[in-house]
Amino acid sequence: MARHVTVIGAGIVGVACASYLRRAGLEVTIVDMRAPGEYCTFGNAGALSPGSCVPYAMPGVLKRVPGWLADPAGPLTIRLSYLPRALPWLLRFVAASRRERIPEIARALRALLGGTFEAYAPLLREADAQHLVRQSGYLFVYETQAGLDADAGAWRIRREHGVVCENIGPEGIRELEPALRGVYRHGVWLPEQGHCVNPERLTKSLAARFQADGGKLVRARVLDIEIGAAGPRALATDAGPMPVDTLLICAGAHSHEFSARVGDPVPLETQRGYHVTIENPTVELARPVSSGEGKFFVTPMDVGLRVAGTVEFAGLEAPPNYARADALLAQAKRMFPELAGSRVTKWMGHRPQIPDTLPVVSRGSKFANVFHAFGHGHLGLTCAAPTGRLVAELVTGAPPHIDPAPYRVDRF
Ligand SMILES: Cc1cc2nc3c(=O)[nH]c(=O)nc-3n(C[C@H](O)[C@H](O)[C@H](O)COP(=O)(O)OP(=O)(O)OC[C@H]3O[C@@H](n4cnc5c(N)ncnc54)[C@H](O)[C@@H]3O)c2cc1C
Predict the structure, then answer these.
(1) What is the pLDDT of residue 96?
(2) Which atom of ligand 1 lies closest to the CA of 221?
(3) Residue 71 confidence (pLDDT)
(4) Average pLDDT for 149-161
(5) In this structure, what DSSP letter does residue 342 have?
(6) Is 63's pLDDT higher than 90?
(7) Which of 129, 318, 322, 397 could pair with 205 in a Cys bridge, judged by C-beta atoms 3.0 to 4.6 Å apart?
(8) 206 lines ligand 1 (CB under 6 A)
(9) Under a CB-based contact definition with an 8 Å cutoff, are residues 404 and 362 in contact?
């Protein structure tokens, strides 16, 4: 039985896992060279989506890829120089889009995501952070019937899994969000979803509570894992060695570097995304609005209005291409003609993405003192608390509240 767990990574996933482990009575230390929530978690769109059980690799999606790639402002881009590196991952992505795999992936996604608000509730209450999460619902809007039809398979899967998705017309859209331009003919209203008004603050609040409860947070970069006969026994860090009893890898888009070291290689790729945040916006929204055709979210946050989305394959090292963020801003201004603000900030972040959309939430396959929780892709904010709950069950040996098999590290 684990006594002490060392968690690599203080993103929302690492912090939620550490919080659940601490609540289960274990000694827990998080190690990260950044303060909590300052990497990918910092800039996400804030959508909390217990209904997002649609695999990214849908057969219909693949057909649309050439059109997206041809559009410089489109939702997907691959830097040519990075294509050879991304190719093996992309081939696995295509393999995951086989029709027969879609139902099992959707089922496993829904099993994890469905408990989002329930799993966050105790963490928010204990951290006095309920005000950062709203069960506001959110709205998808489409300009054309063709746009709505192109996503028909995705809406069908959500409905099959019990997600409430109400089709509404222009009047319903205007009633919910009057600031939207009048071009949106079709809407889908998802009343059970929600959003976080500041993902960085949420992570820092949970981390502060974790520390107040006796959890430790060490600022250091992990350089290597020292492996003994029974598994990891120490971390080599830029602040010196740290002994390890049990290790949990939550290093977001860098997790594969560590999982490979403990004998669990994983196909993890960074899907880089961008945001712009418009401070003191002239447009007020009651809830996130997503452009069905543009595949981005516009979310009301306490720091301003955030426009976030796009997928760029360019690896962990290449500098950001802020033309992608500018394109998001231009599209948001088209969506909300009155949109202006006092200042616009731009950001790029690394989504940790596995080809079959499912995260890795698992015991290590080689060593009994290793656990993994990473690869949540577009859904890490949503999945973090349910992942924390499952990880605590796996580490303590308690009966898991959902079947953990689909998230195994040795499924590839
Ligand atoms: C544009 C955009 C929009 C998004 N919108 C949403 C959304 O609306 N809803 C949603 O649910 N999700 C969304 N996501 C996805 C979500 O942000 C991620 O899935 C989530 O932040 C991943 O959390 P994490 O804790 O796994 O990783 P991270 O937040 O990246 O944290 C990983 C941590 O590991 C640390 N680390 C890495 N290497 C080392 C090392 N060597 N030593 C020590 N520490 C290390 C890093 O410093 C970092 O703090 C979005 C992502 C993007 C980019």
Answers:
(1) 85
(2) 42
(3) 80
(4) 96
(5) S
(6) no
(7) 129
(8) no
(9) yes
Backbone φ, ψ for residue 261 (5° rounding): -65, -30
Q: Which residue has the tokens 């881009």?
A: 77
Give the chain's length: 412
Q: Contact, 113 vs 379, CB < 8 A? A: yes
Residue whose tokens read 């690394």: 350
Q: Which of 94-98, 264-268, 353-357, 390-394 has the lowest mean pLDDT?
A: 94-98
Taken in order 214, 215, 221, 222, is the CA torsion positive or negative? positive
What's the rounded mean pLDDT across residues 116-141?
Answer: 98
72 pLDDT more than 80: no
349 lines ligand 1 (CB under 6 A): yes
The separation between the first and the last C-alpha atoms of the chain, rounded to the nearest angstrom, is 27
The torsion defined by the Cα of 52, 58, 61 and 65, in degrees rounded to 10, comes to 120
Pocket test for ligand 1, best of 48, 116, 254, 317 (most atoms within 8 A of CB): 254
CA distance 406 to 398: 18
Neighbours of 303 (CB within 10 A): 14
Ligand 1: centre distance to CA 249 (Å): 13
CATH architecture for segment(s) 63-97+135-194+270-351 = 2-Layer Sandwich (3.30)
* Average pLDDT of the chain, as a whole number: 96
Distances, alpha carbon 22 to alpha carbons 102, 140, 304, 360, in Å: 35, 38, 33, 21
